[in-house]
Amino acid sequence: MTTIQSLPDSLRFGSMTEPLWIEFDRRVGYHSMNETHYHRSYEVFYLYSGSRKFFIRDSVYHIQPGDIILVDSNVVHRTSELSEPNHERAVLHYDLPFFNGMAPEETELLLVSFAADHPIIRLNIQEQMHVEALLGSLLGELNERPPGYLLHVRNKSTELLLFIARYILKRKAAPDNTLSPVQQKVTAITRHINEHFMEPLLLDDLAKQFFISKGHLCRVFKEVTGFGFSQYINITRIREAEHLLRSTDWSITLISEQCGFENFSHFGRVFKKMVGMSPREFRGLEREN
């Protein structure tokens, strides 16, 4: 059986544009994601060692070895270090084409976990051994690439989703995730942003509403989420703009207004900075695909 000790420090398979994208990393020193992060794929994150802080949607979680983190499609998330700088993790991304050829009820079963209220699975030792044996077999095939390894990788990736789905369906209680008062306040602020991003959101107003100074709000928001206050608002608005450009025939000006931008030119600048292309180019590319 392949162990992670026998793997290279970094292992990659596929890319963000493919049905299955897999990463394994052994990282030494402090490491935090430094970019806006959300994607159409469904993400399974497994932590082998170390500790991490994981911000998902509007909540922060402290992750320990043996935890599985589930990130739904198009949900904003970010990881950063906690007390231990070194860590080892495996990440699998499943895009919808991965499930082509499956019956609708099979796809629904494999994706049910990502709609769970709590995105963390805290495994016991026996369950950790099972998951690590499964991942070890998968990663070992990726590293050695014997004949038929693609079939093996697909089968093991599906088996992992099936294990998670069965676990979620029988889970009676979510793991404890006690938050500090500061984390609770930031969670309330992010939920407010998620619910009211289409309205004007001014730092002055939110500071008064949540009884916190502007400077302290900006500081603790960054500490807890990993995002700047204005950056998080823009991420939330642009993510919705992408959805509307993809799923409606609304004019780009109307989409800009519906997503909370005061003027079209500001929307265009922010969109291009975050997505790498204009809203019109994004819509054209999505329709070609």
From TrEMBL:
Pfam family, one: HTH_18
Transmembrane segments: none
UniProt entry keywords in alphabetical sequence: DNA-binding, Transcription, Transcription regulation
Domain HTH araC/xylS-type: from-to ranges: 187-285
Source taxon at top rank: Bacteria
Example of a GO MF term: sequence-specific DNA binding
InterPro entries: AraC-bd, Homeodomain-like_sf, HTH-like, HTH_AraC, RmlC-like_jellyroll, Tscrpt_reg_AraC-type_HTH
The keyword Transcription regulation appears for this protein: yes
Transcription regulation recorded as keyword: yes
The protein, known as: AraC-like DNA-binding protein
Source species of the chain: Paenibacillus cellulosilyticus
Lineage: Bacteria, Bacillati, Bacillota, Bacilli, Bacillales
